[in-house]
Amino acid sequence: MTSEDPQHLVEVRRRQRSRAIIMALLLGAFVALIYGITIVRMTGK
Amino acid sequence: MAKRRIEGRCDRTYMTTVTATPAALPADWRDLLALTKPRVMSLVVFTGLCGLLVAPGQVNPIIGFTAILCIALGAGAAAALNMWYEADLDAKMKRTASRPLPAGRMDRQTALHFGVGLSFFSVLLLGLASNWFAAAILAASILFYVVIYTIWLKRRTPQNIVIGGAAGAFPPVIGWAAATGDATLLPILLFVLIFLWTPPHFWALSLFVRSDYAAAGVPMLPVVSGPKVTRQQIAIYTLPMAAAAIAPWPLGLAGAVYGVAASLLSLVFVVLAGQVLANRATEPEGMKPEKRLFGYSILYLFAVFGALVLDQWILK
Q1: Could you give the residue ranges of the DSSP H alpha helices within chain B?
Q2: Less CB within 10 Å around the terminal CB: N or C of chain B?
Q3: What is the rounded CA–CA span in Å between residue B299 and residue B274?
Q4: Cα of B59 to nearest chain A Cα, Å
């Protein structure tokens, strides 16, 4: 498989897309977690 | 200067357009996940969670969840860095040849970046969410596993997993420290328990995959000293391990529920280690006692820690 191969490009795009989706979900979860931690630290509960 | 840079860029563009070089694919997320050794992580997470749950006082669920998440991420980071460094060894062993790096599904640099990034992330998050004492122990455990065990000891001495086992013994201490900000006798005993449990656990495994380690040139005890000495060493480590498991009961750190459970579970461990000691087989086909001990050792650790949590909850 070479970089010119259309099948290769499809596979690259597929992997990039799945990684981007997972990264977006993880970042969303991270923001929610940081929000929760901040509230807990501020209220001291 | 600027012209040369532009020419260089043009040359590179030309090269990539004209030559059909085999191009590396970006790593699949499943392979990144595999780098973290999720199965090993489950035991680490469980012991860390138990350390957190048996600690005195109440931990906010969000902070508790974050602490366990950080322990898991730290363990995953250490595993990724271990796979980064040991890609050549993994390629030589049947058991590990299908991992992402030896199988060629990922380049080493990706594994290195992933491992280092995850290490910093887990330590910083634990420090910010919980306390810096717990974060420092997590950082020490990652460094211990990667530098002391993987880079320094593993290829040099048959005692590699004895000393390296300390890295896997940190999670209950981290869990406890995340909840309390300190480390008292009970988490230290839990550390000692896992530390002494690691040699019988790994040597039982390395007895029946000895040829794999020999082929890769890893000086595991069965490769260097043979099955007989390894079986003796398993028995030698099992006895203090059982003592460390039962110790919280007579010391008043745990109740009778834990004491009885730990005693019975340890007794079975000692019996199985005795069967391993009595075995004379040198080929994997005849190593049923070793396989049984290896399987039981995993159950044992889960059960002992589970009994401790149950006992503490009953006491509370």
Answers
A1: 2-18, 29-35, 38-54, 61-85, 87-92, 108-129, 132-143, 160-169, 171-180, 185-208, 210-216, 221-246, 256-278, 288-315
A2: N
A3: 18
A4: 9
Q: Which of A2, A15, A40 sits opposite B26 (nearest CB)?
A: A15
Q: What sign results for the dihedral spanned by CA atoms B200, B69, B170, B46?
A: negative
Of B268, B269, B246, nearest to B259 by C-alpha is B246
In this model, does residue B209 exceed pLDDT 70?
Answer: yes
Q: Which residues of B198-225 are buried (b: 16+ CB within 10 A; e: fewer)?
A: bbbbbbbbbbbbbebbbebebbbbbbee
CA A41 to chain centre: 26
Q: At what angle do helices B185-208 and B256-278 cross, to 10 degrees?
A: 20
Between these two residues, B75 and B19, which has the higher pLDDT value?
Answer: B75
Q: Which residues of B touch A3 (CB under 8 A)?
A: 16, 20-21, 23
Nearest to B22 among A2, A11, A19 (CB): A2
pLDDT tens digits, B184-200: 999 999 999 999 999 99
- Give the integer Cα–Cα distance in Å for B204 and B294: 6
% residues pLDDT > 90 (chain B): 71
Phi, then psi, of B121 in degrees rounded to 5: -60, -50
Phi, psi of A14 (to 5 degrees): -60, -45
pLDDT tens digits, residue range B219-265? 999 999 999 999 999 999 999 999 999 999 999 999 999 999 999 99
- Give the Å distances, CA to CA, from B251 to A26, B70, B246, B247: 44, 31, 9, 6
Are A15 and B22 a contacting pair at CB < 8 A? no
Residues of B in CB contact (< 8 Å) with A are 16, 20-23, 25-29, 60, 62-63, 66, 69, 128-129
Residue A43 has pLDDT above 60, yes or no: yes
> Do A1 and B22 count as a contact with CB atoms less than 8 A apart?
yes
Check: CB of residue B171 under 8 Å from CB of residue B59. Answer: no
